[in-house]
Amino acid sequence: MREKIDTILQESKSFEIKSTTDLENFRLKFLVKKGLVNQLFQEFKSLDSEEKKKWGKELNIFKNSIESFFNEAQNELNKNTTDSEGRSENSFLPGYYNELGSRHPISFVMEEMSQIFERLGFSVATGPEVEDDWHNFSALNFPSNHPARDMQDTFFVDEDIALRTHTSSVQVRLMEKGELPIRSIMPGRVYRNEAISARSNCFFHQVEGLYIDKGVSFADLKQTLYNFVQEFFGANTKVRFRASYFPFTEPSAEMDIYLGTETESDYKLTKGTGWLEILGCGMVDPNVLENCKIDTKEYSGFAFGLGVDRIAMLKYGVKDLRTFFNNDKRFLDQFAGL
Ligand code: PHE
Fold first, then answer.
1. Is the pTM of this model over 0.85?
2. From the CA of 112, how far away is ligand 1's center (Å)?
3. Which of 1, 92, 127, 290 is exposed most, by the fewest CB atoms within 10 A?
4. Measuring CA to CA, how many Å separate 180 from each of 30, 128, 269, 285, 292?
């Protein structure tokens, strides 16, 4: 008996318990009904009463010793698996789930557009969303008290400061820096005091572009925009230019892409015409260049401004613009993995 007790004790002490699997193996070997400890208790039953007296106490000490070894090992393991807040991890529970966010569809579309222009050699410029009158209006050839300012219903902070109504303000900041040539795009959020509906909001997003160099012509503008449309909407996309007016460009145009009227959503989006307006553009008005101290005898340029939100609606078949900004996780989860 002595020998057996000692061997098993020895064996249990040298059993390495480093994981919950080890712990379980230990239990199976020593502590279950058919385990080594119980085997000795079975043998004990067949001893005569004299012997029983002798070994009963010893056996109990032996059993306790193995059990406490097991308990200690178990505690030690639990200690190692507590997190920084002291919660112990039960290996039979599922792990903590760290939810990954996803990119917002509007940011994604803005980035996608930016990348196309970056491949054409445009770099990205940014500027403040709270702007002064000069950068948002005056430098861009909006005379004070001119009705053109009403085209863009403005949120004023005070008399001279407003939320920018377009990212053209960043164009002014770039031109003022005077580092020519300029070939940049300005993605960003802009604000207009418009009635909120399924198709318009009091803020939206633009990717504007500016190219100023010697001898830039309207043909360059068209080629740049054609290239963008083919990359973004597909090689066979039909486009058209319509003459338009912006104070800061002359001549000015708006560009439409052809969606057709076959599906109900295309019909609605194009108000039955088949054409969707996606951007405004034109040759930078010499007044603007002069406001920014650029020599108009040497330099000319073009500018354009794409509306991001409506294009994102088109791309993802979103019927109500507002759903982009409600922060409803069920809506946003659909874009996981973008
Ligand atoms: N800034 C104009 C707008 O917000 C768009 C535009 C940019 C038009 C550049 C022409 C040239 O409506």
1. no
2. 20
3. 92
4. 83, 22, 39, 17, 12
